[in-house]
């Protein structure tokens, strides 16, 4: 725990044992794991005062603390400070900064850091793309989310399930549910996002939306994918909005009582 790490440093100081960058870096990592970004920043300042210049590992730990605490402004400030101190940020530093922006739904800044990373000739990885795509998804910036997915594929970086799900969800939030259906659905998470997009499409009274939701549910079995409560509830909601009570009841009969969510039950009754 970070309290123990800080306690050890204080004991070293009282015993007049000089701390080096390794000791302070380890303490910063503990603070990062505890989301204690303000303490991490304070410790980074203490390193400078003690004539121990923070290295890329120390800055990376401080940036991780900012990410976990949604401190996007502090993360951007630290990234700028690294340039001023002539400490070259690595991919991990940029990923933490992008994730900090993502967690605060600051998609413009997430993309700005993404571009800065490439200007430095650093190669983004799947974490970079997933964080940037998630930032766009939170703000329904579906075109940017699709751009990031396309850029990943062009670079031969294998997207993970959450990258696909973020792109689909971005389309769903922007009411571009037909676009969402054109995207790959490698697992249950992505399929659930696509069904949710259909549910959103049904709000616009599209007769195709509830049929698409039904088809997406049907594809889970042959693909050996688990049908979870999120998939079921999204389908129930689409059937309810289309007033397709028979489909809602048919789905209800296939679900064990313990797995029935409150939303699904209320949607079935409403249909």
UniProtKB/TrEMBL annotation:
This protein's source sits in the domain of life called Eukaryota
Q: Which UniProt keywords apply?
A: Repeat
Query: What Gene3D superfamilies does this protein map onto?
Result: Tetratricopeptide repeat domain (1.25.40.10)
> Which InterPro entries does the UniProt entry name for this protein?
PPR_rpt, TPR-like_helical_dom_sf
Pfam (any one): PPR_3
Looking at the UniProt entry, the stretches that span the membrane are none
Positions annotated as PPR repeat: 55-89, 90-124
Q: Which PANTHER family match?
A: OS03G0856100 PROTEIN, OS12G0638900 PROTEIN
Task: State what protein this is by name.
Answer: Pentatricopeptide repeat-containing protein, chloroplastic
């Amino acid at each position: 725990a970070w309290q123990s790490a800080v306690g050890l440093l204080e004991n070293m100081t009282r015993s007049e044992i000089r701390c080096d960058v390794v000791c302070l870096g380890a303490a910063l990592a503990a603070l990062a794991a505890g989301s204690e970004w303000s303490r991490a920043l304070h410790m980074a300042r203490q390193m400078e005062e003690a004539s121990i210049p923070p290295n890329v590992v120390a800055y990376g730990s401080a940036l991780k603390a900012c990410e976990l605490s949604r401190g996007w402004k502090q993360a951007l400030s630290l990234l700028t400070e690294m340039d001023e101190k002539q400490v070259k940020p690595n991919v991990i530093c940029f990923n933490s900064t992008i994730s900090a922006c993502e967690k605060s739904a600051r998609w413009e800044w997430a993309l700005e850091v993404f571009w800065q990373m490439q200007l430095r000739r650093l190669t983004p990885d799947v974490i970079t793309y997933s964080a940037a795509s998630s930032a766009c998804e939170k703000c329904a910036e579906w075109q940017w989310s699709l751009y990031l997915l396309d850029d990943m594929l062009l670079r031969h970086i294998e997207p993970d399930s959450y990258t696909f799900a973020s792109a689909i969800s971005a389309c769903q939030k922007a009411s571009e549910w037909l676009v969402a259906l054109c995207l790959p659905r490698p697992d249950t998470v992505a399929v659930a996002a696509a069904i949710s997009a259909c549910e959103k499409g049904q709000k616009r009274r599209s007769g195709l939306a509830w049929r698409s939701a039904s088809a997406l549910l049907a594809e889970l079995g042959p693909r050996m994918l688990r049908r979870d409560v999120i998939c079921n509830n999204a389908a129930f909601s689409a059937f309810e909005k289309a007033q397709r009570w028979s489909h809602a009841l048919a789905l209800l009969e296939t679900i064990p009582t313990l797995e029935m969510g409150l939303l699904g039950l209320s949607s079935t009754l409403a249909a």
